[in-house]
Amino acid sequence: MSSYSAEQFDSEEEDILRRYFTNLDRPVFALVNLPEVVKGALFARYSRSSKSLRRLFLDEFVGELDISGDETIDATVGLKRAEELYDLVFFEYGDDSVAQLGGVHLACEQASNLLTKVLEWGRLMSYLEQSTRYIAYNSRLDGRYRYYRDPEVMASPLAARYVADMDFLFDTYSNLNEIMREYFTNNIPKQNNDSDFAYLQAIKAKALDSVRGILPASSLSNVGIYGTGQAYEALLLRMRAHPLPEAREYADLILFELRKVIPSFLKRVDIPDRGQQTSDYMADSRDRIIDLSEHYFPPTSSPLPGPLVDLTDYDPDAEIKLVASAFYSHTDRSDRDIEERVRRMTIDERIKVLKALEGDRENRRHRPGRPLERPSYRFDILADYGAFRDLQRHRMMTIEWQKLSPYHGFVLPNELIDAGKSDEFESAMDRSSSLHDELIGIFPEQASYAVSLAYRVRFLMHLNAREAMHMIELRTTPQGHPAYRQVCQEMHTLIAEKAGHLAIAEMMKFVDHSDGDDLERLESEKKSDLKRTGQVNNNSKNS
């Protein structure tokens, strides 16, 4: 594995940390002996902090805890527990559902942006990932920029080239970040009703948003995960079969730590005729499809262009079937009988039903129930990797993505053009593309580390209308990043105009099709500042 920059703690800090973390010197560790609310709050703070989780815990949480009763606990040496019942249920009874009853909070630090997408694949886990909007990525670890140094690449003749090009990208990112902060400050003046805190936070977010596309996929991030034993088992089986060496190496780190906390749930992972057999099956199936794909669709460095969003599949009768689904749980009729009756209804009658299903939605958190899961949409999307990175974390859907490369071109932010800094940005993109092309022949999996987040990636989302409502309304709010706002605005338009599902589109009444504000985060930061200074009731109703 790439060298891990272990944090240093003094003896007093080590005494405290040993009670709550399964190790003090590895990039993967579990949280134990803490109330669930503390672990949740710690992870929530984690995504917007540049600190490691252990340092964050020491600086901001220890003072709120009574740790006097924990002095004899040492989580780093493992936990003793009675496992006989779990062993009986797992291996003799074969009841896998038991593994849904035990969960673990796990921190995964100094993981590349390629690896974070692997970690966040599972539907039945919860994730928080370090933000590129609130955290500047130009800080250093042990005097080095925070990017993944793949051991195979670093042992090759391309090592010096890799480091030089990565440093160039981070230097450009750092320089342009300062330039853009000054540019936005000069061009978007603070209003009289804006606090200094909210204004400066919004300026910082705007600048970081404008330059995040320069960061390469090798950029290191921190991810907080909560999942059950069953979900972790599925994650580990996938990671052990993954073609990316970093993923396989990280799987070993995760397994090592989880076995300190939920060992019984993970006994099958590396048993030859159980977990290992499953991982081998996954790898073999993937390799077979890859071989056939290369036969029928030979790889090219000039793929066919495509629209930002393409609606490739939908049901023309979706709204009729939605009306039928709305009735189902309130009748004693069969699904087929209900649908036949609905087809005899007038359009006005169907609209009346859909209006009743929608109800009086006062904010986007009011969502109709499961009947809205009947219609579904399949979107083929070609957007920059930064937008994909944000949208990929929506889990209640089928999402697939293609390998990241520079071959679909990149997105140049308008703000950089306006600031006269497009040449610097394009120079970084050229450097990223050139490094990728040098790596691809020797290191086909690791080559994507070189690709900047501004480059486009093709990905597919297949989701039902209820999840579409949640995602599209959430991701079109004015404070969102323009890249994913544009994707979700187009999805909403296609549901209405191409699919012709006007009634479903109208249910999504909190979709925002505006161009957004000059400072997307300003209103949100103002609300946060009011809460921070105690000038607003936290129990007040929010839209």
Describe the protein's topology.
Layout: H1 11-17, E1 28-31, H2 36-46, H3 53-60, H4 84-93, E2 103-112, H5 113-119, E3 125-129, E4 140-141, E5 144-145, H6 151-154, H7 159-187, H8 196-211, E6 220-228, H9 229-240, H10 245-258, H11 275-296, E7 309-314, H12 318-328, H13 335-343, H14 347-358, E8 376-384, H15 385-391, E9 398-401, H16 414-418, H17 422-440, E10 456-464, H18 465-475, H19 482-497, H20 502-507, H21 522-532
Antiparallel strand pairs: 1-2, 2-6, 3-6, 4-5, 7-8, 8-10, 9-10
Helix pairs in contact: 7-8, 7-17, 8-21, 9-10, 9-11, 12-13, 12-14, 18-19
How many angstroms separate the termini? Answer: 46 Å
Strand content: 5-15%
Principal-axes shape call: globular
**CATH first level of the domain at 11-132 and 220-289: which class?**
Alpha Beta
The overall strand count is 10
Q: Describe the main β-sheet briefly.
A: 4 strands, antiparallel
| CATH fold-level label of the domain at 11-132 and 220-289 | Gyrase A, domain 2
Low-confidence stretches: 536-543
Strand order of the largest sheet: 1-2-6-3
Description:
- With 543 residues, this protein is α+β, with helices and mostly antiparallel strands.
- Helix content is 45%, strand content 11%.
- It contains 21 helices and ten strands.
- Helix 7 (159-187) packs across helix 8.
- The longest helix is centred in the N-terminal third of the chain and has 29 residues, at 159-187.
- It is globular, with a radius of gyration of 25 Å.
